[in-house]
Design goal:
Blueprint (H helix, E strand, L loop, with lengths): L4 E7 L4 E11 L6 E14 L5 E11 L7 E9 L3 E8 L8 E9 L8 E12 L8 E12 L3 E10 L12 E9 L3
Antiparallel strand pairs: 1-2, 2-3, 3-4, 4-5, 5-6, 6-7, 7-8, 8-9, 9-10, 10-11
Length: 183
């Protein structure tokens, strides 16, 4: 189902950044449409070799179902065409277990042409949740085209087995995304 999303981020010249994100979501077990809200704060530092380092925290919560709010802490590095990040949530989705997530993103930018996108992520939960797998991976492969203030992306998104299979949910789908950037 389509989702309406909005994000507002502000980067200070000191390296500090703050922001927020909101989206419509449909989560198990009842799959009614609710809202997801996310607030974040962090600090980014430019390092040698045009690599940026980032450390930050965020808090995510949901209206339906309620009680799934959680904090997440991350550290990462990024350059023009790649990024890596390691995240830790002490009470993932408000549950009595923690989760660690590692991700790699490749986004080579080709001027005036479609550019490839690649994302690979791996999640480990400790201890394992009551339903579903202790570990799982997710991935995305696609193309992006950048106009002056709009980016279009078409990608195939997939994930390994998870608790969602118990609810008969798909693990793979096509995603079309249009992003407009404020000047």
């Amino acid at each position: 189902a389509p989702a309406a999303q909005a994000a507002l981020l502000y980067d200070y010249s000191s390296g500090l950044y703050v922001g927020g994100f909101a989206s419509t979501v449909r989560l198990a077990p009842d799959f009614t449409t609710g809202l997801q809200g996310l607030g974040l704060v962090g600090y980014a530092l430019r390092g040698p070799g045009n690599v940026s380092w980032d450390i930050g925290a965020l808090y995510t919560d949901f209206t339906k179902p309620s009680g799934l709010g959680y904090s997440d802490f991350h550290i990462g590095a990024a350059a023009t065409e790649w990024s890596v990040r390691l995240s830790y949530a002490p009470r993932y989705f408000g549950q009595p277990y923690s989760a660690t997530y590692a991700e790699l993103n490749l986004t080579p930018a080709l001027e005036g042409a479609w550019s490839p996108l690649l994302h690979v992520g791996w999640l480990a939960q400790n201890p394992p949740p009551q339903y579903g797998s202790r570990t799982r991976w997710d991935g995305r492969i696609g193309l992006a085209y950048n106009f002056e203030v709009v980016t279009l992306q078409l990608s195939w998104v997939t994930a390994s087995s998870a608790a969602s299979e118990a609810y008969g949910q798909r693990k793979s789908t096509w995603v079309l995304r249009a992003t407009a950037w404020l000047p």
